[in-house]
Amino acid sequence: MKVDALSRYSARRSQLSSAKSSPGEVLEAAGDFLRRSSRVGTEGVDDALRGLGRPQVEAWLKAQKPQSLQPVLLRAAEEAVEVALDGGDEAEMWRASAMEGLAARDRAASAARALAAWEGLHGALDGEAAQLRERFLTALGTLDSSLRPRARWFIPLNPQRRQERDLLEPAEQDTAWWFSARVDCDDLVATWTGRPQTLTSHLQVCVDCRADMADAAPVDAPPRRHLSADDLWRFDMGLMTEDERSRVDAHTARCGECAQAVLALGEGEDAVEEALDMEEGSVGRAARSSRAPVAQRPSAARHPEQREVLDERRDFRVVLVRERQHVRLLVQPLSGRTVTAAVFLSPGRPSLKPTQGPEGLAFDLTTASSTGARSAHLSVQAGSETLERDFSF
Fold first, then answer.
1. What is residue 261's three-state secondary structure?
2. Is 25 strand, coil or helix?
3. What kind and span of H or E run contains 151?
4. Who's near 107: CB < 8 A, 6+ residues apart?
5. How confident is the model at residue 28 (pLDDT cuts 50, 70, 90)?
6. Residue 383: enclosing H or E segment and its boundaries?
7. Which among 23, 55, 299, 389 counts the fewest CB atoms within 10 Å?
8. Beta-carbon neighbour count of residue 357 at 10 Å?
9. β-bridge partners, 391
10. Core vs surface per residue 259-283: b (16+ CB within 10 A) or e
11. Residue 301, CA atoms < 13 Å, CB-side half-sphere
């Protein structure tokens, strides 16, 4: 793989002198060599950069949209997880595609490095061009700040990432987080697909891996004792104390089976109340009096929908919707721009698939909540506007 990587970078040298190469291709190739000078040399780099005129560089800067790398990296994250979960014939396909996503971010880093070298030869950009350069570099920095803390997504690619990292100059390696961050945390993958019997030496000492395992523990832990028939009867009749009802609410928040049982109680009560309303005479009144008053039965109390605005931007709004047994995340467009979004729960789990509805993109978090998940990561893009944030539900 190292030999293949070296050959791949060496083969790009022709782009430095080819008349068919675009300014972007020249900058990316030049930056590749500058960032790997000890391994591939810098022959032809200065001549190629001197051959780029100021108008060419300024036109290239105007066309740059670093925010478009965000969905590329998020897709690479999903594909990297597939490498760990699949492990079959398709794993190599996922691996190659995910590595290409990381390579796209690396090419942007190479272009930025070559741009600095170009200014060293031609003089600093000024005016609008200088503003475009700063916008380009700032957008890359913002992207890195939001995604570098989630480098664990790319751990299944570590063998290939290490080889790419080792080709870089030492000063470049840490900055290139897409190749270097969490690059020695291979053992964490085993905790995604089946917790190891004993912790490896790495998992015992790696602070980041320990934190990831602690975050995943509530998801992986088995549910507590299910509600018994007596528990459900006492809950339904309104005979539980306040503390007991709180424990039932806490349990059903993480146990889908018991949540469905409690939900069925409420649906059953609706049917009983409707039947008793239609029934006349003392029999109906006696049957009604044998149960606790509707207002006193916790399961009969209606839990109105609760909405919490997590974030609001010019082009979209993010709303967390809570009902008794359902949790949804809505990404609502506020302008004519196309809005894309993804929700990631935890390492080893793909992103949730949204549904398009009258209120926008909707992510159903109910199943995740019933398994004990309490937080997720949201990524939204609308035009040039992006949002990266963790949220609790």
1. helix
2. helix
3. none
4. 28, 31, 32
5. very high
6. none
7. 55
8. 11
9. 376
10. bebbeebbeebeeeeeeeeeeeeee
11. 11
Q: Which domains does the chain have, with CATH numbers?
A: 2-183 (no CATH), 187-221 (no CATH), 229-300 (no CATH), 306-392 (2.60.40)
User: Model confidence over 199-250: pLDDT tens digits?
Assistant: 889 998 999 998 888 766 544 443 346 778 777 877 777 777 777 777 777 6
Cβ atoms 85, 348 nearer than 8 A: yes
* Alpha carbon distance 330, 319 (integer Å): 5
Which of 113, 115, 132, 118 has its CA nearest to residue 59?
A: 132
pLDDT at 286: 44
Q: What is the DSSP letter of 155?
A: G
Q: Are 381 and 70 in contact (CB under 8 A)?
A: yes
Q: How far apart are CA 294 and CA 301, in angstroms?
A: 8
Backbone angles phi, psi at 51, to 5 degrees: -75, -10
Sheet (strand 327-333) strand order: 306-312, 316-322, 327-333, 360-364, 355-357
Distance CA 155, CA 268 (A): 48
Residue 342 β-bridge partners:
379
Residue type, 41: G
Task: Provide φ and ψ at 250, rounded to 5°.
Answer: -65, -40
Give the position of tokens 């605005």.
309
pLDDT, tens digit, 9 for 90 and up, residues 341-371: 888 886 556 678 888 887 889 998 887 766 6
Contact 144, 112 (CB under 8 A): no
The confidence score (pLDDT) of residue 260 equals 67
Cross-sheet strand order for the sheet of 385-392: 339-344, 375-382, 385-392
Residue 65 CA from chain centroid, whole number = 20
30-54 per-residue burial string, b: 16 or more CB within 10 A, e: under 16: bbbbbbbeebbeeebbeebbeebee
- Amino acid making up residue 245: R
Q: Given this model, what pLDDT does residue 182 score?
A: 95
